[in-house]
Design a protein that fits this description.
mainly alpha; 2 helices
């Protein structure tokens, strides 16, 4: 892996993690009988840049999470 590929892979991991978090929150809201409008959901992006400290202090926990990753989004059909 070249030094130029590392920031790109880190950014992709961050976007993926944010997408997983969004999926979990939407699934939790759906489980609590909240109605999720697909049009509203389409406006949410996992590519958030306003809260990222590019040159800040980062703590990387390399241990796998205890819970299983959520990969399916439940919406009202």
């Amino acid at each position: 892996m070249s030094p130029h590929e590392l920031p790109c892979q880190f950014r992709e991991c961050l976007i993926f993690h944010t997408a997983v978090d969004i999926t979990k929150v939407v699934n939790d809201l759906t489980a609590e009988d909240w109605e999720i409008d697909p049009v509203d959901l389409a406006t949410i992006t996992p590519y958030i840049t306003s809260k990222i400290r590019r040159f800040g202090i980062w703590h990387l926990d390399m241990e796998p999470p205890e819970q299983e990753a959520v990969g399916h989004l439940r919406t009202a059909a």
